[in-house]
Amino acid sequence: MGIDAPIGVFDSGVGGLTVAREIMRQLPEERMVYFGDTARLPYGTKSKDTVVRFSRQIVRFLKTKDVKAIVIACNTATAYGLEEIKRELEIPVIGVIDAAARVAGAVTRNGRVGVVGTTGTIESGMYEKALKKYNKEAQVYGKACPLLVSLVEEGWLHDMITEEVVSRYLKDLEYKSIDTLILGCTHYPLLRSTFSKVAGEDVTLVNPAYEVAMELGELLDKKGLSCGKGVAKEKKKYEFFVSDAAEKFCNFANSILPYDIERVKQINIEAFEAEETESLFVTAGMAGQAVSKRR
Amino acid sequence: MGIDAPIGVFDSGVGGLTVAREIMRQLPEERMVYFGDTARLPYGTKSKDTVVRFSRQIVRFLKTKDVKAIVIACNTATAYGLEEIKRELEIPVIGVIDAAARVAGAVTRNGRVGVVGTTGTIESGMYEKALKKYNKEAQVYGKACPLLVSLVEEGWLHDMITEEVVSRYLKDLEYKSIDTLILGCTHYPLLRSTFSKVAGEDVTLVNPAYEVAMELGELLDKKGLSCGKGVAKEKKKYEFFVSDAAEKFCNFANSILPYDIERVKQINIEAFEAEETESLFVTAGMAGQAVSKRR
Question: Does the interface predicted TM-score (ipTM) exceed 0.95?
Fold first, then answer.
């Protein structure tokens, strides 16, 4: 595997595109294979066992694309599966939690940090655990916000109803006098301005998508895996795969990525369950179901 | 299979419990096996192919419980899968759409009927198709309401925010002067009072959960499959299965069912994939997706 191998990025659906977007911006030379598990989203309300099983299937798929590193661009999958997947793979694997926790631990002045995310992410307590590594004194206050993903996917990004929902969710954290707030779900950076307005200017927002792209760049440099300028430019640069509804994914992606994607392939991710599926899949070829965006 | 065999009821998650509740009320002698696909919910945003594949796996599971009839207690799965599943089974199969459409077609005075539901249900156009069977003159106006399931599952049933969201969704239908509104998602009966308040007293609400339980009773009578009084009372009456997060399901169920359920079993529903998937998929021209995990 050369340095021009792609980076594998996965999420339960479209949320991880905020991470993909940061990687495109910060590491413009790198190739990327993105997988969104749109047949089984959301992960945030599901159990650890189920999320880990789904994540393993996806990792098996990404390995067939010869990725040089994997970014778990989903807070729930990071919270539940990062450690196990790391242990099972020989290539670097990073999640969205650690980098954000490090930054939050460094920027907080009063040591009171809030975290908003899905039920799964908040219940896992992973942000708290990660923050304590970097700032032993930090007090961490989590708040699950189950409605926000639906509001983002409905497209109500700058909307009175969304603002009211965010206000209600942040009420608990206000009482804790937090001065730093981690947007602990990959959809939430799309509500950044609403969070900023509701939380007020005294609260510093931390965006894990931005931080994990930074960390990825440093990690690739350290491991000698960074793509040199121009190395990948001849090859197909970005590939997108989903487990369902490729066209809908495509539309959402084109509303948030810096350029329009042309093609999203649909695959049957459940087929990556058993050990022997890898060879079966290779034999079956990678025809996939191609859905081109109509222009 | 005797008349004391259970009725199989399935849904993508907890929504179908509004149907289960009606069956318990209207057909108190009947036994029931309920399956909620909590690992892969929601179905409303997923494609037809995926929802049909999930439904087939569930039907295979229900058949292992020797059910005498199947109720698809999910509007999306009914819209996408009822006809195909009916064709493949020898036992009676009914969905939530037809009975509600028949009643709506009968009660409308001005022939203008609104339908609210998930994106999948509305885009399928199935309510319109069913209504036209019973009332050729009817004009049907659909409105997808993707946020409402999340609001119900958040427990914000009698809430200002929910009322505002419902108002926004019903705005389009108001302009159409509907006099009848079908609550075309199994979660929505739990928002019945909000719908009633927002839509006003001139609009008749139709609850498919209630209507399908009525239809089921008639169908069982007609086929000689109704359970006699006391026949099933010695046996375990209601069984609940889910694909994930049994405890959370149990809590939700106990908040809406007329009595507390004691036990919910979690199963791996993906293991009920058809043996012949590969050939089916290849024939359908989708090579590359066609890898069955069990041989």
Answer: no
